[in-house]
Design a protein that fits this description.
alpha/beta, 5 strands
Length: 199
Amino acid sequence: MLRKIRKLMLFGRKSVIQLSGGPGSGKGTQCERIVQKYGFTHLSTGDLLRDEVNSGSLRGERLTDIMKKGQLVPNEEVLALLKEAMLKNLANSNGFLIDGYPREVGQAVDFEKQVSKCSFLLFFDVPDEVMKERLLHRGKTSGRADDNEETIAKRILTFHNHTQPILDHYGDKVKKIPATGTVDEIFAEVTKVIDNFKC
């Protein structure tokens, strides 16, 4: 246990960046570039949950039961998966990109108490109309059932309702990235933020 506590304290020396952006904000594309340039570890809570369910572990079975009932996975389960993934990658990572977490202010508070302080939150800022246009364009080829006008409008509204309190909580730690330009232009803004933080 003491060893784990010591390891968790080491996160203070690593960049721990939370990622936020609406549907169609280009967050996924930028994550790939950040990982490639800086050697960070990208951790998606959705991926961690799916991996645990597919592992056949007792915890995976428990999570499957929760999700089959249509219930939300308790925060302590998600937090435990994040901690374990960070510890596993600690020695070989230059920092962490946390994607899909926190989804509410309480989760942000728990993460900072139990795991690590957040270095900053990268927020990919895109006007609603641009997000909608991108998703509709993607819908022409994606085959995804949720890439239609009515569902997109609901997803964007849900995103704003859940995200604004988190942005308010982090305050000055929020680094807004204008994300309406080209992939290269957006990444140039991202690198400015990360490089300035690391100086």
